[in-house]
């Protein structure tokens, strides 16, 4: 085009990648392959009920020793009143928990497990932040970022202090 000059270099040029630059920028690796959990080849995902299936109508011993049918409509009036009080207390506790959650800053949850960060780690490959358990679980099975699928190793992870 106008005033543009393109110079083509040799495609056989040797490009030297120096890992010292990464160490200078991000510090020494904080994790290795030895930190990853061992994954069994037979089952990647544990089954939730271990093969046990309930009928839906099960009997549980009540607070005063009487038998109450779960998922059924039968129970004594005294047990029902005690149960209502327990339900009300559980709901009040849940409301307090949600009010406290509203007071916390946003975006402090892992995008994989949706739990609050306890030990957040960031990958220097893609800059995604996930909790330690999610990162190690993903790297133990696939060596990829669980969010964007960029190839990531344990040596690419760094601790983050939020």
TrEMBL record:
Asked if the Swiss-Prot or TrEMBL record annotates the protein with the keyword Zinc-finger, the reply is yes
Q: Which InterPro entries match?
A: E3_ubiq-ligase_RNF220-like (IPR052443), Znf_RING (IPR001841), Znf_RING/FYVE/PHD (IPR013083)
Gene Ontology molecular function: ubiquitin protein ligase activity; zinc ion binding
- GO BP, sorted A to Z: protein ubiquitination
Show the coiled coil region(s): none
Where do the segments described as Disordered lie?
20-84
The superkingdom of the source organism is Eukaryota
Entry-linked Pfam families: zf-C3HC4_2
> Which keywords does the record carry?
Metal-binding, Zinc, Zinc-finger
What range(s) does the RING-type domain occupy? 110-149
Q: Can you say what this protein is called?
A: RING-type domain-containing protein
Tell me what organism the protein belongs to: Scylla paramamosain (Mud crab)
């Amino acid at each position: 085009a106008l005033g543009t000059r393109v110079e083509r270099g040799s495609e056989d040029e040797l490009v030297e990648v120096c890992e010292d630059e990464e160490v200078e920028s991000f510090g020494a690796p904080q994790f290795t392959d030895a930190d990853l959990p061992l994954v069994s080849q037979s089952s990647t995902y544990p089954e939730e009920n271990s093969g046990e299936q309930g009928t839906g109508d099960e009997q549980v011993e009540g607070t005063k020793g009487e038998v109450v049918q779960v998922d059924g409509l039968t129970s004594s009036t005294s047990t029902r009143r005690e149960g209502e009080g327990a339900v009300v207390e559980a709901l009040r506790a849940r409301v307090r928990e949600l009010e406290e959650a509203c007071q916390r800053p946003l975006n402090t949850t892992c995008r994989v497990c949706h739990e609050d960060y306890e030990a957040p780690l960031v990958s220097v490959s893609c800059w995604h932040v996930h909790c330690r358990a999610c990162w190690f679980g993903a790297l133990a099975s696939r060596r990829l970022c669980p969010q964007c699928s960029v190839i990531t190793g344990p040596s690419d992870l760094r601790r983050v202090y939020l």
